[in-house]
Design goal:
Protein name: Cytochrome P450
Number of strands: 13
Strand order of the largest sheet: 1-2-8-5-3
Shape: globular
Low-confidence stretches: none
CATH superfamily: Cytochrome P450
Family: Belongs to the cytochrome P450 family.
Oligomer: single chain
Keywords: Heme, Iron, Metal-binding, Monooxygenase, Oxidoreductase, Signal
InterPro entries: Cyt_P450 (IPR001128), Cyt_P450_CS (IPR017972), Cyt_P450_E_CYP52_fungi (IPR047146), Cyt_P450_E_grp-I (IPR002401), Cyt_P450_sf (IPR036396)
Number of domains: 1
Number of helices: 19
CATH architecture: Orthogonal Bundle
Cofactor: heme
Bound molecules: protoporphyrin IX containing FE
Largest sheet: 5 strands, mixed
Distance between the termini: 34 Å
């Protein structure tokens, strides 16, 4: 649970680039922004997810945009771009519906595993938007899909850590079958004509799945696209919203300021429209700061697809180019950049949305919650909308939010002034190391 602190300390050398002495694999770690820029953009073709990652993760993410490189990746991205990169007006109504389900579940006065509920919220919204039939995990007793994705990730995180050896180990076969049978069911039951209303029929027909199916795209490619929006659109939204709530509870004065902005701008009984979300300047700063302090892909790895070099970070003074052999794994310490004191100042580790008061547009090469360049997040706009929408509705619905922790087998309310900060763990994404138990009250 200290991987982020470790990466930041380890990189505190001239050139901020180090070779990690691991047996059986070449590994370089860097948070030098010139090197990150090269990997993400100027030398984009030299680096990719690589064969080992694909062998391990295709059991969950198939041959989708999330696992492929080269032409296969480009083809996948082309299938998705028109739908995933834009927000349709109906997406707000969908997000409103699932936000209300979230509020309902949280209204029982009990502490909840916030990340789990927000994962369910996120998957319910993306399934509804991209193929018109929500997983409805927030309201259903059947959590088999959620459990299968989790079990799959838990096993594969270990396989990933073992790198080439991990690729030889089997994935969680039962979880694979559950996910595959879910995807088959989505395709089998997809029928816009049988919708209950004209609005629903049009929404399904013009969705990602409706559009690709109408173009005659093969079934296995359709499954690749569906799983990429489910996996891509789930964890990060939940992680960022969970960290935002956690930071708001720990900073009552910021929570108060945000509540004021939201309550002056929207009515709890009418859906929130795009202009209203756009108008919330402080909400934007809270989300920007949450994604800086708690980057959901805080460590991102690329494999060199050929012999190449990084522009800087080598030699005694850290300014020479660094030779990179094909197959070398290069770890980008993105969270580490976000905590660099030479970039963000002496208070780089402090959560302070006001740091964005005079500069509400982050610098491209020192702020990367969504990556940069050709492989940046396709769902960025939707992601930000979902996070903001959920926060607005939760803060409107509940006037009290408490953070609880387990002590002697019981959950007790935390004294936020005394409680040490939550650690971050590495598990596919970078996320809270412990369960974030929150209790909401009206
Ligand atoms: C706050 C929420 C989100 C964050 C912080 C986030 C962040 C990221 C990051 C860092 C990547 C690059 C991953 C890599 O290089 O391996 C990525 C890729 C991607 N994201 Fe997101 N994401 C979020 C939400 C979403 C949503 C809602 C969708 C919608 C379906 C989505 C779809 C994708 C897709 C399809 C890719 C793959 C792009 C490619 O490889 O070409 N993301 N995201």
């Amino acid at each position: 649970n200290t991987v982020l602190e470790w990466s930041n300390e380890t990189l505190n050398v001239p050139g901020r680039t180090v070779e990690l002495p691991l047996v059986g694999t070449n590994m370089i770690m860097t948070d030098n922004v010139d090197n990150i820029r090269a990997i993400m953009t100027t030398q984009f073709e030299h680096f990719g997810k690589g064969d080992t990652y694909r062998k391990i993760w295709s059991s969950l993410m198939r041959n989708s945009v999330l696992t492929t490189d080269g032409q296969a990746w480009q083809d996948n991205r082309n299938h998705l771009v028109a739908h995933v990169a834009k927000i349709r007006p109906t997406d707000y109504a969908v997000t409103e519906r699932h936000s209300q389900s979230l509020v309902k579940v949280l209204s029982d006065g009990q502490p909840h595993d916030t990340l789990d509920l927000l994962n369910r919220f996120a998957i319910d919204v993306v399934s509804d938007i991209f193929y018109g039939t929500s997983t409805n995990t927030l309201v259903s007793n059947d959590q088999s899909l959620r459990d299968a994705i989790q079990q799959h990730k838990d096993r594969n995180t270990w396989r990933n850590l073992l790198s080439g050896l991990g690729a030889l180990l089997p994935p969680n076969v039962k979880a694979c079958e559950t996910i595959d049978s879910y995807l088959d069911g989505v395709l089998r039951n997809f029928s816009p004509e049988q919708s209950e209303s004209l609005e629903e029929r049009d929404r399904k027909a013009s969705s990602l799945l409706g559009d690709l199916a109408a173009q005659g795209v093969a079934q296995s490619i359709l499954k690749d696209q569906i799983i990429s929006v489910i996996v891509g659109g789930r964890d990060s939204v939940a992680i960022i919203t969970t960290w935002a709530l956690y930071e708001l509870v720990r900073h009552p004065e910021i929570l108060h300021e945000l509540r004021k902005e939201i309550s002056a701008g929207i009515d709890p009984s009418t859906p929130i429209n795009p202009a209203q979300i756009e108008s919330f300047v402080f909400l934007n700063r809270v989300v920007l700061e949450t994604m800086r302090v708690h980057t959901s892909v805080g460590i991102n790895v690329r494999t060199a697809l050929r012999d190449t070099s990084l522009p800087t970070g080598g030699g005694a003074d850290g300014t020479s180019p660094v030779g990179i052999l094909a197959g070398t794994n290069v770890i980008m310490g993105l969270d580490s950049v976000h905590h660099r004191k030479d970039i963000y100042g002496p208070d780089a580790n402090v959560f302070d949305p006001h740091r964005w008061d005079s500069n509400s547009k982050p610098d491209t090469w020192t702020y990367y919650p969504f990556n940069r360049g050709p492989r940046s997040c396709l769902g960025k706009n939707l992601a930000i909308m979902k996070v903001k929408y959920a926060l607005c509705r939760l803060l409107q619905a509940f006037s009290v939010i408490e953070w609880l922790k387990k002590a002697d087998g019981k959950l007790v309310v935390v004294d936020v002034d005394k409680e040490p900060a939550m650690k971050t763990k590495m598990a596919f994404n970078t996320k809270p190391a412990d369960i974030v138990w929150l209790r909401f009250a009206k």
